[in-house]
Design goal:
Layout (H helix, E strand, L loop, with lengths): L23 E8 L6 E6 L11 H16 L3 H7 L9 E5 L5 E5 L8 H8 L7 E5 L7 H11 L5
Parallel strand pairs: 4-5
Antiparallel strand pairs: 1-2, 1-3, 3-4
Length: about 160
């Protein structure tokens, strides 16, 4: 697991390079909102990781973000959601050639999900291709578990 917390001064407050397009994993973070839940994209860079790090390695940092957003005890949330890295919508941005490829599970909670990802990873929309990847799908049992732990009523 590679964290980029203490790497070069060329990085901004979110741990990303100060200019240029980025690749890496991401999660959709739910937060309490009125009247519904608000969702924000959280990149591996914002969590302090390099682009090569997987969702499993990112999960502890995501549970800390969840705890902060929902005013829960982080240690308790980490324990309750220990192996639950499929509970939130997620994906990855790669660059296998000249195009950036956004891999996703087709379960984003936001209608403007693509625009948000393009902004979060500083991509040029014309250089992006989108591809469904079953591996990135949220697992229903894990999703129910996280919503229960956060105190969100089942819909």
């Amino acid at each position: 697991m590679r964290r980029n917390d203490e790497q070069s001064a060329e990085k901004d407050d979110e741990g990303a390079r100060s200019s240029g397009e980025m690749t890496g994993g991401y999660y959709w973070l739910p937060a309490p909102g009125h009247p519904t839940i608000c969702w924000d994209v959280v990149t591996c860079h914002q969590l302090g990781f390099d682009a090569e790090v997987g969702h499993v390695e990112m999960w502890t940092a995501m549970t800390d973000r969840l705890a902060s957003a929902w005013h829960k005890d982080a240690a308790v949330l980490r324990r309750l959601l220990k192996d639950c890295w499929y509970c939130l919508p997620r994906g990855r941005v790669t660059r296998p050639g000249k195009w950036f490829l956004i891999l996703h599970g087709d379960d984003s909670p936001c209608p403007d999900w693509l625009e948000r990802l393009v902004l979060a990873f500083r991509l040029n929309r014309r250089s992006v291709k989108v591809l469904f990847d079953e591996h990135e799908r949220t697992m229903a049992e894990d999703r129910r578990r996280v919503l229960k732990v956060l105190g969100v009523p089942a819909s």
